[in-house]
């Protein structure tokens, strides 16, 4: 029997299927979602993973038996279900394990208006109610069950994105897209395809949840190699890589070099601020300091956030920010119900590139003002004591500022800084460092690592 406390995480449901959860568990979760939230309408979709067909069908059946009107949207990207939830003001359940390996599956749940759910906002209650059903309590049913209808929203989703970013007048571009056998293979032809003056060169567009070519996790450099080689081979203007459920997008330039998500955050922030002058823009605390500088220069107000989509989504809603960007390549838009969409971010990049004769490497060069270490993980048994020791070392030095918004951030008068924060799930400390020169960055990075690992 499934033990749901093993797979219900802080912000979603994710585990090995069927080892950790199966269709019986999915049905319990479907019934529990309706009984706990009281929602009468629900849209359900899935990505290309093989187990998603049976899991989503069981969830849909149980939700309908509990009285809900269920819309089966079939194959979708995660941001497409946010679109449906936002536009039609219905709750949503997306069956996906995002970038995780093939033997995983999960559910991302949202309330009407694409409002995210977490353990603190109903997910824990759903977990407990579903576990009670699995332990023998009868599932909630009504005398007259709800209905199930199938609707394809892909064309509406594409039309809405094109209302937000006009790509009709860009110069002809050559664009390599690596879908990683994930849902971008479904959405990119509809959104970009023949609707823009660009040649799309597809890599791994076949939907295949076994990921026969590489994992659909572009955060790992090894999963970008094929895209980089194809960009160089074809002489393309840009390369785009999506994760499994296509809510994140990574960019490589015409040389096949990765473009920092911080640079993409700054570029998109400028575009959104041009439409909404003076607005707030969220950036998490490990994005480059250049992001806050560029937001200010563009007339916006930068707002610093903790790392993690739950924090940035909450800050987006609390502040009414027009846009938010994370260094993990999640991009959030007020015009998209404060939800994240890699496709809309990609369209902004194509609009900027297609509006100039310069190559992408030159276009983004002005956003790369600092040298960054990238995220470096160290295995540490007692994370808190190590962070305390590092803070004690730097705290009383002249011209040094420290804060504890998320782990420990130490900032120096020469513009360099580092952040050290613990993993929530593993005995790891994550280090990010940045400086104006590569020499200073390397010196700072090695100095902090020496304190961590001694």
From TrEMBL:
- State the similarity comment: Belongs to the phosphohexose mutase family.
What GO terms are given for molecular function?
A: intramolecular phosphotransferase activity; metal ion binding
Write out the entry's keywords from A to Z: Isomerase, Magnesium, Metal-binding, Phosphoprotein
Query: Which species is this record about?
Result: Stackebrandtia endophytica
Q: Which GO terms describe its biological process?
A: carbohydrate metabolic process
List the InterPro entries hit by this protein, alphabetically.
A-D-PHexomutase_a/b/a-I (IPR005844), A-D-PHexomutase_a/b/a-I/II/III (IPR016055), A-D-PHexomutase_a/b/a-II (IPR005845), A-D-PHexomutase_a/b/a-III (IPR005846), A-D-PHexomutase_C (IPR005843), A-D-PHexomutase_C_sf (IPR036900), Alpha-D-phosphohexomutase_SF (IPR005841)
* Residues covered by the Alpha-D-phosphohexomutase alpha/beta/alpha domain: 7-127, 156-256, 262-370
**Residues annotated as domain Alpha-D-phosphohexomutase C-terminal:** 375-450
Q: What is this protein called?
A: Phosphomannomutase
- Please tell me whether the keyword Aminoacyl-tRNA synthetase is annotated for this protein: no
Pfam families on file: PGM_PMM_I (PF02878), PGM_PMM_II (PF02879), PGM_PMM_III (PF02880), PGM_PMM_IV (PF00408)
As cofactor, the record names: Mg(2+)
Q: Which top-level group of life is the source organism from?
A: Bacteria
């Amino acid at each position: 029997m499934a033990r749901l406390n093993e797979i219900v995480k802080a912000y979603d449901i994710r585990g090995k299927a069927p080892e950790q959860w199966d269709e019986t568990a999915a049905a319990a979760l479907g019934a529990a979602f309706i009984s706990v939230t009281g929602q009468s309408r629900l849209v359900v979709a899935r990505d290309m993973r093989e187990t998603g067909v049976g899991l989503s069908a069981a969830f849909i059946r149980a939700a309908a038996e509990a009285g809900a009107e269920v819309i089966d949207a079939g194959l979708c990207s995660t941001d497409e279900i946010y679109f449906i939830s936002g536009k039609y003001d219905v709750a949503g359940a997306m069956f996906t394990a995002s970038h995780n390996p093939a033997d995983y599956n999960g559910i991302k749940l949202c309330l009407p208006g694409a409002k995210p759910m977490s353990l603190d906002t109903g997910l824990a209650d759903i977990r407990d109610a579903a576990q009670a059903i699995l332990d023998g309590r009868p599932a909630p049913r009504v005398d007259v069950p709800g209905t199930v209808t199938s609707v394809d929203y892909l064309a509406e989703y594409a039309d809405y994105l094109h209302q937000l970013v006009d790509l009709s007048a860009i110069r002809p571009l050559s664009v390599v897209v690596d879908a990683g056998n994930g849902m971008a293979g479904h959405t990119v032809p509809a959104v970009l395809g023949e609707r823009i003056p660009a040649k799309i060169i597809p890599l791994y567009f076949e939907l295949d949840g076994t990921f026969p070519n590489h994992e659909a996790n572009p955060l790992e450099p090894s999963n970008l190699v094929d895209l980089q080689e194809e960009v160089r081979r074809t002489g393309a203007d840009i390369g785009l890589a999506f994760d499994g459920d296509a809510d994140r997008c990574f960019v490589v330039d015409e040389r096949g070099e990765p473009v920092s998500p911080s640079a993409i955050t700054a570029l998109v922030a400028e575009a959104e601020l041009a439409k909404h002058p003076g607005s707030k823009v969220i950036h998490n605390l490990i994005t480059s300091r250049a992001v806050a500088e560029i937001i200010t220069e563009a007339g916006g107000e930068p707002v610093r956030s903790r790392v993690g989509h739950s924090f940035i989504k909450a800050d987006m809603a609390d502040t009414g920010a027009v846009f938010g960007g994370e260094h993990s390549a999640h991009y959030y838009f007020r015009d998209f119900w404060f939800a994240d969409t890699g496709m809309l971010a990609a369209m902004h990049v194509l609009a900027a590139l297609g509006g100039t004769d310069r190559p992408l490497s030159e276009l983004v060069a002005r956003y790369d003002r600092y040298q960054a270490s990238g995220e470096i993980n160290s295995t540490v048994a007692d994370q808190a004591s190590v962070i305390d020791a590092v803070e004690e070392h730097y705290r009383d030095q002249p011209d040094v500022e420290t804060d504890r918004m998320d782990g420990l951030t130490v900032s120096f008068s020469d513009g360099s800084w580092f952040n050290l924060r613990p993993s929530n799930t593993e005995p790891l400390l994550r280090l990010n460092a940045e400086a104006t020169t590569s020499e200073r960055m390397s010196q700072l990075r090695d100095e902090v690592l020496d304190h961590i690992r001694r």
